[in-house]
Amino acid sequence: MERKSIDREKKRKPSGAAVIRPELTTALFRALFEEWAQSGYAALSLERVAARAGAGKAAIYRRWPSKREFVRDAVQSVGINLSDFSDHGSLGADISAYLRATRVAFRHPLIRKIIPDVVAERMRTPEVSEMLDSLTAARREFGKQMLDRAVARDELRPALDRELALDLLISSLYMRMIVHSKNPTMAEIDRQAIAIEAAIKAC
Q: What are the HTH tetR-type domain coordinates in residue numbering (predicted)?
């Protein structure tokens, strides 16, 4: 055998080696959310999730040791990106951008079904409560950065009650879209942003 052939044999992957394909991971996440929206967390079947993704159950367990880790990574993969926490130059502009991006997320049919199920399930299932608490903590850290920018611009006082301010940031839109299943117009979003900014300045 020639030298080049030997080198190629050394570089070749072992037969049967598992290859983690990113596109399948994405498909599994999408299938998970579809199954979750249809069946709820308690009845979530990994077999059905894998079938939706066109894969076998082994594809899930090659990536995650349990349903808990699978769901956690899926939620974290999208949870932070549901809102816009970036700097738009002023507190009012930051709040408006946050509400607009969150409005887009809350209008997604899967999200509108999954969020109420998560909130209900956290009262019954410790692993869901832990997962939701972790995601909420990460999102609130981004929200605190938004508030800190406003403090640095002298738009908010340094002694601001940040926890109350963060509650105010999301509560009106959550109530309107998730609790009451309404779709606010962009004009209503703008009015919410003005009201929220005024409320946060009073914190």
A: 22-82
